[in-house]
Amino acid sequence: MMAKAKKSQSPLPKLVQYALENVPHEVTTFPADMRDAEEIAARLNLPPGQLFKTLVVIRPNKGKPILVMIPADRQLDLKKVATAVSEKKLTMASHAEAEAITRLQVGGISALALLNKGFDIYIDDSAQAYPQIYVSGGQRGLDVKVGVTDLLRITGARPIPAT
């Protein structure tokens, strides 16, 4: 007979555990050296549109960057995002910039780990086609399956056309 797993045994970073407290979710793991979101979706046997990657977008001269969650199989459309967030122009953060800004490794950047850090958080409106999606669990090799309505409530993410 197996003992019930304690919360502390979750592989998720503490901030993510805290964000997901009392929220139904499922942790999935994959090799931490896998970076390509489409490959990860294939490994987890998911449609790539249900696995979301979190991208860091920089505003010109305007403080905190933006986090945008988009499906694994799509490219971010900076013009659409700029229009949706009332900016003239946005740029993608380089890997080094994204890591410096979030203090998380690329592949492990998660809106769930960055709550209350002042980021404006957005999600591609295609997420609303699914009851649950997979997002980064805050470190490479960890994804979390969570209800879209829960994710929006927890992160304050606003659905926008982003791809």
Architecture overview:
The protein has a single domain (12-160), classed as Alpha-Beta Complex (YbaK protein). With 163 residues, it is α/β, with parallel strands linked by helices. It is globular, with a radius of gyration of 15 Å. A hairpin with a 7-residue loop joins strand 2 and strand 3. Helix content is 22%, strand content 24%. The strands form two sheets. The chain has a five-stranded mixed β-sheet.
Fraction in helix: 10-25%
CATH homologous superfamily identity = YbaK/aminoacyl-tRNA synthetase-associated domain
In what order do the strands lie side by side in the largest sheet?
4-2-3-5-8
Q: Helix/strand-derived class?
A: alpha/beta
Briefly note the CATH topology name. YbaK protein
CATH arch. level architecture: Alpha-Beta Complex
Q: Give unreliable regions as ranges.
A: 1-8
Shape: globular
Strand content: 15-25%
Oligomer: single chain
Q: What pattern of helices and strands is seen along the backbone?
A: HEHEEHEHEEEHE
